[in-house]
User: Fold this.
Amino acid sequence: MIASAFAYYNYRFSEYKFIDFSEWIFYQKSELFQPTSDQYTVLVLSSNKDDIKALLPKITTEHPVLVVDLYQKREASSSQVQYVSAGMNTLLPFVHRFGIYEIPSVFEITIERDLLYKQNSPLRTIR
Assistant:
């Protein structure tokens, strides 16, 4: 019984990952990104490969979209779409933690406390 509970606990909390915006530094244009919403839909892409205007209609969400650009092109943000980029010391651990092997990929995050957000949906690739 205890072994089953332990296995379930490990499975449940390894399924969803956390992102701490106080540890990882993301930029909007030349400013630091500070999350303002309790929930985001995170879209990971490379702007030299993917057309963001074609991808956004494929994402159905009520939350602002946080676009993480691996190509690091810094686009202007709006209230519903916020473009962020980061240095390689942030992007590599980010990609590894969330297991992003194909792009464009999307998942949702929800605030846990302060600047700590929890992955709230499975990672899926957009076709």
